Amino acid sequence: MRRPKIHVAILSMEGTNCDEELAVAFQAVGAQPEILPLRAFESDGARSGPRRRLDEFQLVLVPGGFSAGDYVRAGAIFAARLRTSLGDELEQYVSSGGYLGGICNGFQVLTELGLLPGRPNGRLGAPQAALMPNASGHFECRTTFLRWDGGNFAPLQNVPAGTVWRAPSAHGEGRLCLVGDSGERLRQLHAAGQLLFRWSDPTGGAAPYPWNPNGSPGDIAGLTNPEGNVFGFMPHPERAAFRWQYADWTRTGDSESLGDGQQLFGAIVQHLAERR
Residue 67 is part of a domain; what is its CATH number? Predict the structure, then answer.
């Protein structure tokens, strides 16, 4: 039986720069992505065609980059635009079960909106977390790895705990800081299944620097909301979607097999197809 097409919206604005990589990666796993400027969803008339709606899509993604130059702080201006022009629609989309994800700068945007770690029913609000400057004090651009330990993210429920994916990092502000007692808050998020990914070394082990490139406590690299349909993480699986994107592909002679990013995105698309 043919699976239904999964329509993916990749939101862009001035300064986002990973949208095309993300579109190519999702095309490779059978989805139908569209890169759409934020103004395509806004109601002020500053667009060239009919207004688009979030509920046209099974997955909405906020990509990486430096939206609005990361002035004020990373992701703050993009988040303010979303809150002002699409706040009610965004809450409705999330509360109705639509999947919303953010990668790197997109993760920063979703924390600025208060959607991660999030409140029940996808309500926007004051930030409960922030992605602060890296503990190293400088921009980190390197190969890093994500470990899935289980949690409430439904697309990965059939993936064995301990699975590791390669996902390169490129960020200057990725150190997760939680409001309140960070140790207690991490324990609460772990109990709720909201710790999506942890940084690891290539074997799935502990992640001292540089494997944890930003110093996030608990090696946390990604979060979900309480319902598991809003998710965000700092590294870039779209930069490891194909084996020829790996730094060692010329030495291994392997340019044909699937990259780890394609396996991760494929699991998300498969889950969304099975829901329909």
Answer: 3.40.50.880
| Res 258: pLDDT | 83
Verify whether residue 236 is a known catalytic residue: yes
Active site residue 171: no
Q: Report yes or no: 135 and 244 within 8 Å, Cβ to Cβ.
A: no
Three-state DSSP at 130 gives strand
**How many Cβ atoms are within 10 Å of 195's Cβ, its own excluded?**
24
Is residue 104 part of the annotated active site? The answer reads yes
Assess if residue 56 is contained within a domain.
yes
Spatial CA neighbour of 193 closest among 151, 231, 233: 151
Determine the structural domain holding residue 261 and report its residue range.
7-275
Comparing CA positions, the residue from 51, 58, 52, 1 lying closest to residue 26 is 58
Domain for residue 2, yes or no?
no
- In sequence order, what E strands does the chain have? 7-12, 32-37, 59-62, 99-103, 129-133, 140-142, 145-148, 163-166, 169-171, 173-178, 195-200, 220-224, 230-233
Catalytic residue among 104, 112, 140, 171: 104
- Tokens representing 67 are 């939206």
What's the pLDDT score for residue 232? 98
Q: Write down the mean pLDDT value for the chain.
A: 94
Residue with tokens 């099975």: 274
User: How many structural domains compose the chain?
Assistant: 1
Query: Would residue 54 count as lying in a domain?
Result: yes
Which residues does the chain have with pLDDT short of 50? 1
Active-site residue identified among 21, 140, 236, 271: 236
Residue 194 lies in a domain: yes
Q: What is the C-alpha separation between 54 and 230, in angstroms, rounded?
A: 14
